Amino acid sequence: MAVSKSSLGKQQHNNDQEYQKKQEPLIPGLPDEIAELCLLHLPYPSQSLVRSVCCSWNRAITNPGFLLRKRSLLLSLPYLFISAFHNSTARIQWQALDPRSGRWFMLPPMPCPGAVCPTGFACISVPNQGQIYVLGGMRSDTRASINTTIVYTASTNQWSTASPMVTPRSFFAAGNVDGKIIAVGGSGAEYNDSITSVECYDPRKDAWEHVAKMRVGLARYDSAMVGGKMYVTEGWTWPLLSSPRGGVYDLGSDTWQEMKDGMKEGWSGVSVVVGDRLFVISEYGDCPMKVYVPDRDTWHGRENLRGVKWAKRGNRERIGGTKRGVHSKVGGRGYPHGFPRPFSFELPSAVCLKTPL
Length: 357
Prior knowledge:
By secondary structure, the chain is of the alpha+beta class. Helices cover 16% and strands 34% of the residues. The chain is built from 6 helices and 24 strands. The chain has helices at residues 5-23, 32-40, 47-51, 55-62, 64-72, 261-266; strands at 78-86, 92-98, 103-106, 122-126, 131-135, 149-153, 158-162, 173-177, 180-184, 198-202, 207-211, 222-226, 229-233, 246-250, 255-258, 269-274, 277-282, 289-293, 298-301, 308-313, 316-321, 326-327, 343-344, 350-354. Strands 1, 2, 3, 23 and 24 form a 5-stranded antiparallel β-sheet that branches. It has a 5-stranded antiparallel β-sheet with strand order 19-18-17-16-22. The protein has a 4-stranded antiparallel β-sheet with strand order 4-5-6-7, with no helix packed on it. A hairpin with a 2-residue loop joins strand 12 and strand 13 (229-233). The longest helix is centred in the N-terminal third of the chain and has 19 residues, at 5-23. It starts with a helix and ends with a strand. The model is unreliable at 307-335 and 344-348 (pLDDT under 50). This is F-box domain-containing protein.
């Protein structure tokens, strides 16, 4: 096939332009090694702006080696991600808090399958992958549960969809156990249809599969991952006529066990895991914060806690761990400091994620 000289010349010109782009310095006047260090120290919220500066910057920060160097230099910081919703329209808008500047910024819109209830889904972080998984939920128009799996990747600041769950569910518990995601119980196809099925998602295979069922369905769900196991409880529900139920799931043996009496009796609020210690922010009583002591199957109040820093803000108390690896939940509905209005948030909408950028 004959090729004209003009076509060959145009192709050569394009190749020359591409070569010149690759040879462009990251920052004029600086060696690329020094310029890369400057890019490594840019905060995560600036990544979308960095990509639009020039082709060389876009190539640099999307290179897998760049992410590895950032991790090796321990430059990644935990960010607090909150799924907020508009007060009047119920439109969902994920937002993130930069811990260094104290500023909030908005994520791209999450791809929702139509109108959904803002509090019906479960959200789980996979910190070592820099990802957030948003599972299931309930359509607000038909009140039917859905089985979607939506993934946010911090390194690209983008949403994507993964394989859907086997069973549609809403208002359920979910957790990250050894890199795999466990979805437990909840409401089934109908809002009042309580289910006991449990399924496990393997991110490497992008596949869900059923695992051992719960022994009973729960009225509501709170959960925590401690020591490679998932603890699930319904907590105390008004009017407090019967003791709460709970179970412990072991992924290694694919079995459920009864939760110890002391643990489920004292689990009276939302949970926070700091290291391997389970804290509960109590919803009633005179003990606002307590920690579970496994050896004694009991809970210790604030006066018995060591290695924990306390801060007071208004009529609320916060906890700051002295160890790394804090998994956070934010309780209540309202406006955290600097949080953009007119959005609100409710549990279970907050996760802590160590971003790779």
